[in-house]
Amino acid sequence: MNEISRFAANERASRAVVCNGMVFLAGCTAEDRSQDILGQTAQALAKVDHWLSVAGTDRSRLLTAQVFLKDIKRDFKGMNEVWDAWTVKGAAPTRATVQADMASEETLVEIVVSAALGSVVASSMA
C-alpha cells in the first residue's frame, strides 16, 4: 500500500508530501524579502533543509530541484554561489533553473525539490 503523509497541509496545499519512499516539497521562498539574491537563496534553502528534516531525510538525498528566479540574468550567478556552498559534494540533484513571474514583487527566488527517504549513503562516481 502506498500510504501518503502530508505535512503542514491546508485546503490548498501541503508543505511536504511523502509517498512511496520519496518526499516532495512545495516551493520554498525567503521570509525576509528585503534581502538580495544571496540572502533570499540562503533563506529558501534553510526552509528546504527544515522540511526535508520534518519529512525524515536531508539534502544528501535530493533527486531533483527546480529553481525559479525573478531575473535570471541578474541573479543566476549569486543564486549559484549560495547553491554550490549548500549542496552536498557528490550528491547534486538534477536541476532546472528558469526565469519566472513571482507571486510577490519582492520574491527573487523560489526553490522546489524532491528527495528520497532512507538512510544517508555516501556515494562516489568512478
UniProtKB/TrEMBL annotation:
Record-linked Gene3D superfamilies: RutC-like
Pfam families, per the entry:
Ribonuc_L-PSP (PF01042)
The family database entries (InterPro entries) matched by this protein are listed as: RutC-like_sf, YjgF/YER057c/UK114, YoaB-like
Instruction: Give the matching CDD domains.
Output: YjgF_YER057c_UK114_like_2
Q: What is this protein called?
A: RidA family protein
Protein species of origin: Roseateles flavus
